[in-house]
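[#protein-structures] MJ: dropping Shikimate dehydrogenase (NADP(+)) here for a structure pass
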Amino acid sequence: MRENIDGHFLLIGLMAYPIRHSLSPKMQNILYSKLDVPYVYLAFEVTQDKLEDAVKGMRALGLRGSAVSMPNKQLVCQFLDKLTPAVEMIGACNTISNDDGVLTGYNTDGMGYMRSLKEAGVDVIGKKMTLIGAGGAASAIAVQAALDGVKELAIFNQKDDCYDKIVEIAKRINEKTKCKATVYDLADQDQLRKALSGSTVLCNATGVGMKPLEGQSLITDPSMLRKELVVSDCIYSPRKTKLLEIAESQGCKTLNGIGMMLWQGHAQIKIWTGQDAPIDYVKEKMGFND
Ligand code: NAD
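AK: finished. structure tokens for Shikimate dehydrogenase (NADP(+)):
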């Protein structure tokens, strides 16, 4: 593939730290090759103290765009020229598009999650969703769900540093969209049971279920999950978390985080190249069908 690179190729970056383990460079470059577009994607180790310079470098070198990951998703917003309404509400950006020197910040995490539901034939528009989590993934999902037309969001999280932030985001959702968002303490299991009984979808957007919390689930009582509930987990490693195991045993339809990851990449490629990336192809190539 490298033999094809000539002077017309455009560079897409990924600014994060640590980042060498990321699957994104492989996934994105497979798709650029398949689409036959003159793009290459490279990961750059960028810590917060280097972020402003990295964005200036992006302008100076004319990168077509960049992905942004931890710990830079919030801080990067202040160095950009424009933010989408979703990014304004979430307060975090994972995708920058450089259009003739104008840098716009997008967030494709929530877009990827909502698209993964749609592709799995799950219709949550006009309905209620229960979301567990209050970090980066949960914030992006909550805002995108509200913007896409989910009618009601019941958000649960433990009372940690993230809790107040998701309360703020819920406030913005209630002010700016037609969705009604309410935040509850995860310790209130009666409230969780009640929320789930009226929900179409449950989404786990916490790290509970992956290392070092692999084998754990925030839902321990299977009777909370009736079989009509769609149970999704943002985690993709392991493919089947404890939560999804419990949900399957109850007869629920389940989704892991692979769809979210692939479709958020699809949204990025659409922003940077205008093309629709063949998600089934990369899923197969990366061994995500197993
Ligand atoms: P984060 O650090 O911003 O948030 C972590 C969340 O987990 C918080 O809500 C925190 O309160 C909660 N949490 C942590 N330990 C807990 C515990 N013991 N009990 C209850 N809650 C606990 O992380 P994030 O970036 O929002 O990621 C959350 C999950 O989503 C991770 O598993 C991550 O791998 C996954 N994720 C998946 C994708 C994807 O494309 N599939 C994208 C982003 C994140």
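MJ: nice. The chain has a mean pLDDT of 97.
AK: one more thing. The chain is about 40% helix and 20% strand.
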